[in-house]
Here is the input.
Amino acid sequence: MSTITTEALSATTLLRFATAGSVDDGKSTLVGRLLHDSKSVLVDQLEAVERASASRGQEAPDLALLTDGLRAEREQGITIDVAYRYFATPRRRFILADTPGHVQYTRNMVTGASTAELTVVLVDARNGVVEQTRRHAAIAALLRVPHVVLAVNKMDLVGYEERVFAAIAEEFTAYATELGVPEVTAIPISALAGDNVVDASARMDWYGGPTVLEHLETVPVSHDLAHCHARLPVQYVIRPQTADLPDYRGYAGQIASGTFRVGEEVTVLPSGRTSTIAGIDLLGEPVDVAWTTQSVTVLLADDVDVSRGDLIVPTKDAPATTQDVEATVCHVADQPLTVGHRVLLKHGTRTVKAIVKDIPSRLTLADLSLHPHPGTLAANDIGRVKIRTAEPLPVDSYADSRRTGSFILIDPSDGTTLTAGMVGESFAAPEPVTDADDDGWDF
Here is the structure.
């Protein structure tokens, strides 16, 4: 395995990305090839894969086994659970979510892509764009994933023909653009042979764009959430009541977005009570400023009633509270979601009772048309819902904040996750059409 110094890692950026695609499109093989050819596989891991492959009568190592870790996955040759992998090159660090392709595990794809900045959607060059491809493109658009890579795999099985790749790239890009996906980069690959995964392919000299790894290393990634709406969901109230800290009362949580400063006036939602930040503790030490993803304890100047589930926000930038939530959802449970369904709605650290008041529409993936008032959403359906909550919630639009603009619906009887929801408009507005860069195949 290649050696990367701590200094080099500290200077690189982090990219979270997910893979998606239909069954047998080669996602796990692509991930395995990516790890293997970038020298991110430990020797003992590779030896274990070689032994497992040999026991199954395969001459070459089955690189898909590097990610398909569950026994059922190995037996069936499919991905069932989300497999997270961490690797690094001298240019960037990566957190990779290898998500299932089978339609019944679409819920896992939602989980894997919910925090991704880039999604790699694989397509089998022999089959082209299929329904599951459209579903994954729609989910990527709903989750506002800013970058989508179309990896047209198994080019070796279609003779590395440019016209096959171009036709698939054009169809997918037109579909994704209609969904409002801001950027699609199409790359022809063969994960099995290694073409255009880490190293450029000599068999496709008609393609002049980056390999998959080159694109992952160079795609612009913005982690600057410090200028977004500041939001701190309270997870825990710290009240030691010791001799040293008799009056200490801190409100602990991970900052979802934005920046908080000592002396800033804040509002606690949904109560609407206001105060001023008297102190911020980070890792046991006082700081003047804290920002996104840091886990902190905030102390307020006034004795305000704050509990787990409350949201601390700047008074000058507070979201409206509402009991009527309209959102686009992806239904992930086997039992259908129906009008009148009584559920629990979990938003940040707060969970409240709610009822589904209406299902205005269901999305038809084939042509992106809306089926009005279906009355129910089945497993893997995408649709619009109107929900009435028992208590007011401070929700942002998902377009403004992926953290505080999202929620899940839970079955109150057994705790099963029913639905993943995104507050506000369904999809981003399509970008204006510009001339494509033929050299880079960036459709």
